[in-house]
Specification:
The protein is built from 13 helices and eight strands. It has 383 residues and is an alpha+beta fold. The protein has three domains: 123 residues, Butyryl-Coa Dehydrogenase, subunit A, domain 1; 107 residues, Beta Barrel (Butyryl-CoA Dehydrogenase, subunit A, domain 2), CATH 2.40.110; 129 residues, Butyryl-CoA Dehydrogenase, subunit A, domain 3 (Up-down Bundle), CATH 1.20.140.10.
């Protein structure tokens, strides 16, 4: 595992994408306060996603015949990094571009590819992912939502929870049980494409401490789906979803959730004339951790570029990355409190408040810390 995480470089042809995407990102965030930009991958802006699609920045890794850029994972890394670095609103296209499209490309039928991939590349079609369920915690294999075969396809019943952007999405890719029981664990799980406007689907937003409602509960009450709603092979859902999670855990988004706060704080230190002492040392430590994690994330991208599925490596990046993201608001709050007479811009305080409120979720989304460390331990032969 550690050999595969060796230092890698982003190819020059992919680095060349930075100027153009930087212009679009800057345009989308011009005049937007830091506390709004800090919501970056919860920031839903369908018009901006369509603008990215028109410019060719969505579906970068997909074949051109489906509207994609037919480039490698490094191209997407550059685009994502530039968007997150300034807090551009990416939520609308995020899941479809990052996970749903590669999943459909790799496991879907040709009809599914032709139907779904071109509008994803245009930024016209939005997806969410149905994995978590009430009472299951991080035990994804205990799925109880069930799809039964019918004469015309599938009938779906059950519930999903913590589904990001379900109220704004067109479709969900749901992990469901098509045979056996929850005690059968990985056996009998399949993935279905669910039209969220179908009769019997109910979506209820969940408000968080910050007053946002990015998550939702989704209920399925005798939802009839066509036969071609199945992605891949029935009963192979566990294998497919693990390949999907490698895309979710390996990118730069597992490093930059607190980056807008970090930049706002550094700007505050510069304006306050803080050039040395504990605060300057803290900036250095965070910068060093960011640089190391970025190198590790690039190494994961290199594995994806070679056609590998870096499940263990991506878990390592995600675990260490979310630790950094959670450490930042605590340390920044302590630093500001250590100089109580120093004026602080209200925008910085609003940004700090927001990140401090949502930071506990960083080690939950995409797999809890405990689950990830179990994956890492197995990969190292320790369990």
């Amino acid at each position: 595992m550690f050999d595969s995480m060796s230092l890698q470089a982003i190819p020059p042809e992919d680095e060349a994408l930075r100027p153009a995407i930087r212009v679009l990102a800057a345009r989308s965030t011009k005049g937007v306060p830091a506390d709004v930009r800090a919501r970056s991958w919860q920031g839903f802006d369908a018009a901006f996603s369509r603008e990215l699609g028109k410019a060719g920045f969505l579906g970068l890794t997909l074949p051109k015949r489906y509207g994609g850029g037919e480039r490698g994972p490094f191209a997407r890394f550059v685009v994502v990094e530039e968007l997150l670095a300034v807090g551009a609103p990416v939520a609308a296209h995020w899941i479809a571009d990052r996970q749903s499209a590669p999943l459909i490309l790799n496991f879907g039928t040709e009809a599914q590819r032709e139907r779904f991939l071109p509008p994803i590349c245009r930024g016209d079609l939005f997806f969410c992912i149905g994995m978590s369920e009430p009472g299951s915690g991080s035990d994804l294999a205990s799925v109880r939502t069930r799809a039964e075969r019918t004469a015309s396809g599938w009938r779906l019943n059950g519930q999903k929870i913590w589904t990001t952007n379900a109220p704004h999405s067109d479709y969900m890719i749901a992990l469901v049980r098509t045979s056996g029981t929850a005690e059968d664990r990985h056996s009998g799980l399949s993935q279905l494409i669910v039209d969220l406007r179908a009769p019997g689907v109910a979506v209820r937003p969940i408000a968080d401490l910050a007053g946002d409602a990015h998550f939702a509960e989704v209920f399925f009450d005798n939802v009839d789906l066509p036969a071609d709603a199945l992605i891949g092979t029935e009963g192979e859902g566990w294998k497919q979803v693990n390949a999907e999670l490698a895309f979710e855990r390996s990118g730069p988004e597992r490093i930059y959730s607190s980056i807008v706060l970090f930049d706002a704080w550094v700007g505050h230190l510069q304006r306050a004339g803080v050039r040395e002492g504990p605060a300057a040392c803290l900036v250095g430590r965070f910068t060093a951790r960011l640089a190391t994690l970025r190198a590790m994330s690039i190494a994961c991208t290199a594995l994806l570029a070679r056609g590998e599925s870096p499940v263990v490596e991506a878990s390592l990046v995600k675990d260490l990355g979310t630790a950094l993201e959670q450490d930042m608001p605590v340390a920044i709050a302590d630093d500001l409190a250590s100089r109580p007479d120093e004026p602080v811009d209200p925008e910085l305080l609003r940004t700090l408040t927001y990140i401090a409120q949502v930071a506990p979720s960083f080690s939950l989304r995409g797999g809890t810390r405990e689950i990830l460390r179990g994956i890492i331990a197995r990969g190292m032969g320790l369990r």
